[in-house]
Each structure stands twice: as structure tokens, then as C-alpha cells.
Design brief:
By secondary structure, the protein is α+β, with helices and mostly antiparallel strands. Helices cover 16% and strands 30% of the residues. The chain has 5 helices and 19 strands. Strands 2, 3, 4, 5, 6, 7 and 8 form a 7-stranded antiparallel sheet that branches. A 6-stranded antiparallel β-barrel has the order 10-12-17-16-13-19.
Length: 321
């Protein structure tokens, strides 16, 4: 009986000692800036989604330098009946310079058939950034005996069509990721490089983890693959959004409030109650973006963490290392 009790005591002591470092680590994770008190709302744990090889290969890009159009997809084994090709199928490549074993990336020069602007000035911003391209597939040349080269699709992101361009394949470096940490949802500006989310892959407007976005900052500003940007939004941006602004126009008061609050009052709308200035509300961080690739003036990123939907037009700020 004594031996059993002694063994139990030793086990409890070992367990308590094993918990000490974990407890200390947990306490360290709660260390936050002066003027804050950590909660799961203001400092939630951030667990990021790491970009895969497919994410890297299929991200797309925006570039001021146009892709050469001399080499392109001219057809496939069942032309003209078949126009879309994917993994394992063969395509015919028009142009010159092909050699057996060479790999090419198939890209598409994009246009948005929907001319609607998601945020004011979006089209102007995109024009200053350059031409958007989607990355559709990676192909390998398997036969060069004809006027056109024959290539096999090794990996496809989207179906390949006649007219899509072929450019030499360049493998993108893997992206390192940081471990889970506390995400400061109300972090004031850190004074580092800022930009804007101008466009998303497939012309999406509601963006979440795993989605690809295009930023109006690039290598000329020192941006490189693996950099993290924090996506942030002010309530003034919501105020000027054609949809979100509708909520500001609705009453937020209770009938039992004697003097009702008013948002951004004018001379005619003052009630004598509290006056809420939208510009004074704190900005909030909505997610985190990791850079996948860059051009001199743009960057392709992937949303790896989001507290809510990331929007086109959201600002981004280079995050702390």
C-alpha cells in the first residue's frame, strides 16, 4: 500500500513539473502590448493555411510586362470537337523553340466581362498595375517532329483552351509559414509598407482562406515571396461601400432610449443624443495574406487566415516579422 501511495505521489509530481513549461509558454503567449488586455476576441489564435504546390502553381499574376504571344495552344487530339483539356491530355503548341522534355506554363490573358467596379477606382487601379493573367497548367513537350510541338498536360488548374499562351515554366520557391500565434485584431498602423487588394483570382469579390489576391505593391517596394501582409479595414470603408453602407442608414436605437444616438450627424439630423463619428472608430484587421510571387509593381498573395470575409479594396500592411 505504501509503495502504491509513493508511486502515485511521484507520478503526480512528474505531471505537475511537466505542466510547468506549458503553463509558462501559455502565459508568454498572452503577453500583449501596453494598453490592452488579451481576450479571444481581440487576440484570437491565428492558425494559418500553408500554401501547397498547387496553390503556388495556380495563383496567377498581374504584370505590366505583357506575356509574349508567339507560342500558344493551337488544338488537341480531338480538335475541333474538343476545346478544353486537363491532366493527362495532349495539346498542340504553335510557335518556335520547343525541345523534347521542356516544360511550359500555360497562361491566359484575362478580361473581366463584368464591368462592374467592386470598389470605387478599381478599374483605374488595375490599369496602373498591368495585365492580369491566370496560370492554367504545366505541360511537358513530348514530340517535336511536326510543325507544331506536342505536349502532355502534367498538372492543370483550369481547363486549357486554344489561344492560351505558353511560356517557359519556372518553379516557384516553397513558402515558409509561422507557427500559431496571437492575432492582434486592433493593431494600430505599424508604419510599414501599405498597399491594397485590387483583384482576386477568378474575379471573386468575397475572399476567404485559400483564395488568391493581387496587390498593388511589388518587388520595387521590397516585397518578396514569403512576406506577410495584414488585411485591414476601417469603418469609413464600410460607410462608403454600396452594400455595407445601408446598415449605417438603419436605426440602431431602442425605443426606450430618451436621447437616441446618431451616426455622423448633420445640422438637420442631430437629436441631442450621443454623436458617433465613424472616422473615430478603430480600424480592424480582417485577415492575413502571404506573398506567393511578385513582379516589379505587383504581388500575388494567398489569404491564409481570416476573421471575416476579406474584401476587394481592403488595405494591406506589411506585417511584423
Amino acid at each position: 500500500m505504501k509503495k502504491t501511495r509513493l508511486l502515485l505521489t511521484l507520478c503526480l509530481a512528474v505531471a505537475a513539473r511537466a505542466q510547468e513549461p506549458a503553463s509558462a509558454a501559455s502565459q508568454a503567449e498572452l503577453n500583449t502590448p501596453n494598453g490592452t488586455q488579451p481576450t479571444t476576441v481581440s487576440f484570437p489564435f491565428e492558425r494559418i493555411q500553408t500554401p501547397t504546390a498547387v496553390d503556388l502553381a495556380c495563383a496567377g499574376f498581374v504584370s505590366k510586362q505583357l506575356v509574349p504571344n508567339a507560342n500558344f495552344v493551337a488544338g488537341d487530339l480531338y480538335t475541333p470537337s474538343d476545346t478544353k483539356n486537363s491532366n493527362g491530355e495532349v495539346v498542340y503548341l504553335a510557335g518556335k523553340g520547343y525541345e523534347v522534355g521542356q516544360k511550359y506554363t500555360i497562361v491566359r490573358e484575362l478580361r473581366d466581362p463584368n464591368l462592374y467596379e467592386i470598389f470605387a477606382g478599381q478599374h483605374t487601379l488595375l490599369k496602373t498595375m498591368g495585365q492580369p493573367y491566370s496560370e492554367l497548367a504545366r505541360v511537358r513537350v513530348i514530340d517535336t517532329r511536326s510543325k507544331m510541338a506536342i505536349a502532355e498536360i502534367e498538372m492543370s488548374c483550369d481547363p486549357v483552351n486554344p489561344g492560351d499562351y505558353a511560356i517557359p515554366y519556372v518553379e516557384k520557391p516553397a513558402i515558409s509559414f509561422h507557427p500559431p500565434l496571437r492575432f492582434d485584431r486592433f493593431l494600430p498602423s505599424n508604419g510599414k509598407l501599405t498597399g491594397r487588394i485590387a483583384m482576386a483570382k477568378d474575379f471573386d469579390s468575397e475572399i476567404g482562406p485559400g483564395d488568391k489576391v493581387y496587390l498593388n505593391v511589388g518587388a520595387n517596394q521590397g516585397v518578396k515571396p514569403g512576406d506577410y501582409f495584414r488585411a485591414v479595414r476601417t469603418y469609413e470603408a464600410d460607410l462608403h461601400d454600396p452594400v455595407d453602407s445601408l446598415s449605417f442608414k438603419a436605426s440602431t436605437n431602442e425605443d426606450t432610449q430618451k436621447k437616441q444616438a446618431v451616426i455622423d450627424p448633420t445640422f438637420l439630423t442631430r437629436t441631442g443624443g450621443p454623436e458617433i463619428r465613424v472616422r473615430d472608430l478603430p480600424r480592424r484587421a480582417v485577415g492575413e495574406v502571404v506573398v506567393i510571387s511578385t513582379t516589379p509593381t505587383t504581388a500575388t498573395g494567398m489569404v491564409v487566415f481570416a476573421m471575416e470575409s476579406v474584401h476587394l479594396g481592403d488595405n494591406v500592411e506589411l506585417d511584423q516579422p
